[in-house]
Amino acid sequence: MAKRVLVGGIWHETNSFSPVKSDLDAFRRYLFLEGEAVITGSRGTNTEIGGMIAAAPAAGLELIPSIYIGAAPSGMVSREVIDLLIGRLKADIEANGPLDGVLLALHGAMVAEGIDQADAFVVQAVRDIIGPDLPLVCTIDFHANVEQALVDPADVLIGYKTLPHVDMGARGEDAARIISGLIASGRKPHKVFRKLPIITVPQRQPTHESPMREIMAELATVEQGPAIVTASVLGAFAYCDVPQLGMAVLVYGEASAAEAAADRLADAVWSRRAEFKPDLVEPAEAVRRAIAANAGPIFLVEPADNIGGGAPGDGTYLLRALLDGRAREAAVVIWDPGAAAAAAKVGVGGRFRGEVGGKTLALHGAPVAIDGTVTFAAPVRYRRDSTWMTGQPADLGLVATVEAGGVRVILTTERAIPFDTLHLRIPGVEPEKAKMVSAKCASAWSGIFGEMAEGHIYVDTPGVCSSNVERMPYTRLERAFYPLDPDVRYP
Ligand SMILES: [Zn+2]
After folding, report:
1. Which of 262, 308, 347, 375 makes a 20 to 30 Å CA pair with 202?
2. Short-list 436, 382, 414, CA closest to 312
3. Does residue 387 carry a pLDDT above 80?
4. What local confidence, expressed as pLDDT, does residue 378 receive?
5. What is the mean pLDDT of residues 229-257?
């Protein structure tokens, strides 16, 4: 008979430097699945729960859906969200007992009001409800800030192995298979957790580039060991001002093999620490280089305003540089609900004059005046067409495109994470035909646009996701970290 496993979760990467609070409404607007909708809304998608659903029949599991919610990466999650989630999980665990296990899809870098490690808080709450013995397996993002409080209540944590993230479904499948094994054997694997005192930035973490490529190759070798259940190397998320920052290694399996594997992986990271330093170019110079390039598109990547990392996506330094540099065939997306509505009101073919962007944080630049023709005005909704969370719905709200000089400025009502091509195509920009395209992300652009890109330049603008960690105003780190403290030692 199929084993009965409750499935649920929460997905939020919290940038604690951002003032844009992630309240219940932000979750309801982005991803809010309850009951049967957890299954119907996830089936066939490249998400963790989509993978759990795909693997469930072969793993002998009957999935009992509870709640799965998420919000666009942004500031602190409000306490009501955490309380609602735990309340719903508790009610469903109690109403559906006896269960054989629980699967949770989590991020691992969620910070809530008064709770530094909110994922750990949720997992501990579930453990307290189900008791010490019931198998509990969780998936976490590659950017999880893992600490002991997260490791303890979960029997197994499974991290993504890719950046840009394309393996959510595969990790969900792992989770289903692993919990099935725990249920069948009645035994739990030995856990090894190694925290490394190093802060790295998304720009230098892609798993198809050095140094992560070599580290992930080591991980693949380690996982082939017969005594290893699963292993993860977590890149961690630098934009949380919390004590538990830093990369981590997790290995589950037979005790001595797992300890040795964890040491080997930790050494693979630590010995390459100097290679995580990013290359960055000033905005005006980046625009000059893109104009001088023979062919396009050149992607002007702006990690400091990385929407996927919780930045507002309304930074104006690069827009200013594009206009000042008289860039042609350029495109930039700016989150600005007021300007989007005003331009949409003007209508297609009309002239829009107004200030756009720079309305959330002084750090991200002042609003910029633009003057141009409205070429698109309509609500934009679609299902993601690229490798990231493929098939998941996206809603940009009302969107307007203004052609200002040679720069097409796409103004959105909801923040448009540049994790698909449709957020450009629908408002009228074919990225492969553009000379230069701004991407407010750190590494995601390469998964989506890599094949069409003639080149890319990482632009050094100020912002809450700056690739210069020396610029980040940390106040709560409890230990020395590389590269802030270059002489820090490990172990
Ligand atoms: Zn991530």
Report:
1. 262
2. 414
3. no
4. 98
5. 96
Cβ-based neighbour number of residue 428 at 10 Å:
15
CA of 158 to the centre of ligand 1 (A): 13
Q: Considering the entire predicted model, what is its pTM?
A: 0.85
pLDDT band at 209 (very low <50, low <70, confident <90, very high): very high
Query: Residues 246-282: pLDDT tens digits?
Result: 999 999 999 999 999 999 999 999 999 999 989 899 9
Distance (angstroms) between ligand 1 centre and the Cα of 238 equals 11
Ligand 1 centroid–CA 74 distance in Å is: 13
Residue 232 CA to chain centroid, in angstroms? 17
Using CA atoms, how far apart are residues 239 and 390, in angstroms rounded to an integer?
26
Q: Which of 101, 16, 20, 30 is nearest to 66 (CA)?
A: 101
Residue 71 has pLDDT above 80, yes or no: yes
Tell me, what's the pLDDT at 443?
A: 82
Which residues are in the CB-under-5-Å shell of ion ligand 1? 141, 143
Mean pLDDT across 15-35 = 94
Give 235 Cα–ligand 1 centroid separation in angstroms: 9
Q: Is the dihedral of CA 22, 24, 25, 30 positive or negative?
A: positive
Distance 142 CA to ligand 1 centre (A): 5
165 Cα–ligand 1 center, Å:
7
94 CA to centre of ligand 1 in angstroms: 32
d(CA 368, CA 220): 48
Check if the beta carbon of residue 188 is closer than 8 Å to that of residue 230.
no
How far apart are the C-alpha atoms of 341 and 345, rounded to whole Å? Answer: 6
Q: Which domains, and CATH codes, for the chain?
A: 3-276 (3.40.50.2300), 283-467 (no CATH)
Helix (H, G, I), strand (E, B) or coil at 72: coil
